Amino acid sequence: MLEVEGLTVRFGDRAALEGVSFAVQPGEMVLVTGPSGCGKSTLARCLNGLIPHRTSAHMEGRVRVAGLDTRDQPVSALAAVVGVVLQRPEAQLLSLTVEEEVAFGPRNLGLPPEEVTTRVEEALYALGLAHLRDRPPTVLSAGEKQRLAAAAVLAMEPKLLVLDEALSALDVAGTAMLTATLAQLARDRGTAVLLLEHRIGHLARLASRVLVMDRGRIAAQGHPGVVLAQRSLLRRLGLRRPAQVPHLPWHRLIVPSHPRPAAGQPLLELEDVQAGYESCTVIRGVDLSLWPGEMVALVGDNGAGKSTLARVMAGLLPLRGGRMRFGGSPRLPRPGREVALLMESPDEQLFCDSVEEEARFGAENLGIEARGPAEEALRAVGLTALRRHRPHTLSAGQRHRTALAALLALRPKLLILDEPTLGQDWGHLSRFMDYICRLNACGMTVLIVTHDYKLVHRYAQRVVLLDAGRVALDGVVCRRQGAVVPMYSEHGA
Fold first, then answer.
1. What burial class does residue 383 get, using C-beta atoms within 10 Å of its C-beta: 0-12 exposed, 13-18 middle, 19+ buried?
2. How far is CA 79 from CA 51, 151, 188, in A?
3. What is the pTM of this model?
4. If you placed Cys at 333, which of 165, 269, 339, 367 could pair as Cys (CB 3.0 to 4.6 Å)?
5. Which is it for strands 160-164 and 2-11: parallel, antiparallel or unpaired?
6. Based on the domain organization, do 15 and 50 belong to the same domain?
7. Are 427 and 485 part of one and the same domain?
8. What is the pLDDT of residues 166-189, one digit of tens each?
9. CB atoms < 10 A from the CB of 323, how many?
10. Interval 454-489: pLDDT, tens
11. Is the dihedral of CA 212, 226, 232, 382 positive or negative?
12. How many domains does the chain have?
């Protein structure tokens, strides 16, 4: 189904892939993992012809999908046999409603209307999107957008399905729906599936083979049970070793308990806050306080309103009702020095010509010391070697860390991280989180918006559960034996 032979891709003098060769058979599920920037997303763009036809890159070697050579076939012809779900679902969503988005591909294949309807209904129900069919994609949560992008690709019934970090923003239910659908497609239709992922706990049991990439090359490949047992390899690459994954809902993992500081006042207070987009109210009557020096995790299912609440706290989304107090005053926080938000999509925050300029821009714009904090932030996120690179030539994980470095250099009173695990291997993630912990110990308040159990279990002092736009629980992670099982062991250990 898929044959990759001697694939080498260069962007200028930088090699993103070097001599990559492997094959995937019909009905086979293959997991591809590796550290941030190892070449996984470049590989994905080669499989559907975006490289070499739409991306400025020098490509050597050969890629054949269902007998078609990607060099000889236009992207439009390859779209009928290979479907790719990108890291950023917004990049492939273009219709006015969820239902129209899923129908777009089958219609462009020239299928009869009744066949289009059947495929749309199957895809919507398989990924739990039927109740959202009339919603505009723009108002969906990140996890819902990921499921929508997957549904739109599934409806075209490609022979090869490529998912580039397609589980990164999904909750437990969404992950279960998508992985079950993939397993069924492979088993019943013979669809070949290539999974490019950092978070491999849910996928190691599904895949028949795993490829580990490092600096554009295949560092190891074989049965998941053999390759992922190589602790020295995983530790060297900063990858997480799969372990038992908790399937309990958040409300069974949180113990209501939140002792208040003996003195002082909250940094931020929300009282009966309401907010949303267009005609859709997402946040309904939220009461919540964050105290100086807290490390808080905000959790909940896709569509619960976590990112919306984060934007409200950052002063980027106006209130429709209720009150906000920051530092004891009835006002919104000032973005920058007082509050900084790392968004789910880093491209919304990057606009400078180099990584170093990006890290210094915010602080310099506010007239505060930039050079020292920016240099320290670049070291913390592991980007000193890439300081002169243009941000938009980097991998998604590296761009995410570039945006984070710019925020860390500001030293805000409140730092909000919306899904900081996106595109990150455990090595980079743990290093910058340990640095953030040091800032937190010096008084910075940190709010982490995430689905990652391991991240919450290791770092959060307090956990707030959001459900249907309301605070359902406020407490701590239950640490009784057997109550929480970390998703991965640390650094492959």
1. buried
2. 13, 15, 21
3. 0.86
4. 339
5. unpaired
6. yes
7. yes
8. 877 788 788 888 888 888 899 989
9. 12
10. 889 889 999 999 999 999 999 888 765 444 433 333
11. positive
12. 2
Chain segment 110-156, per-residue pLDDT in tens: 999 999 999 999 999 999 999 999 999 988 888 899 899 999 999 99
Residues 223, 342 within the same domain = no
Cis, peptide link before residue 256, omega less than 30° from 0: no
Q: Which helix (H) or strand (E) holds 280?
A: strand 280-290
Domain boundary among 215, 242, 269: 242
- For 20-34, 71-85, 235-249, which range has the lowest pLDDT when averaged over its residues? 235-249
Distance CA 130, CA 176 (A): 16
In the listed set 183, 216, 242, which residue is the last one of a domain according to the structure? Answer: 242
Q: Residue 97 has what DSSP assignment?
A: S
Same domain? For 268 and 238 the reply is no
CATH number reported for the structural domain that contains residue 160 in this entry:
3.40.50.300
Task: Say whether both 226 and 260 belong to one domain.
Answer: no
Detail the DSSP E strand segments found in 316-461.
Answer: 321-326, 339-342, 414-418, 445-449
Q: Phi and psi for 208 in degrees, rounded to 5? A: -90, -15
Q: 352 and 329 in one domain? A: yes
Nearest to 335 by CA among 308, 352, 310: 310
Indicate if the alpha-carbon torsion angle 86, 89, 90, 96 is positive or negative: positive
DSSP annotation of 291: -
Tell whether the model's pLDDT for residue 341 goes beyond 90: yes
Residue the block writes with tokens 């789910």: 344
Asked if 238 and 256 sit in the same domain, the reply is no
Q: Residue 447 sits in which domain range? A: 250-492
User: How many contiguous H segments (helices) and E segments (strands) does the chain have?
Assistant: 15, 22
**Of 68, 15, 116, whose CA–CA distance to 6 is shortest?**
15
Residue for token pair 């695990």: 421
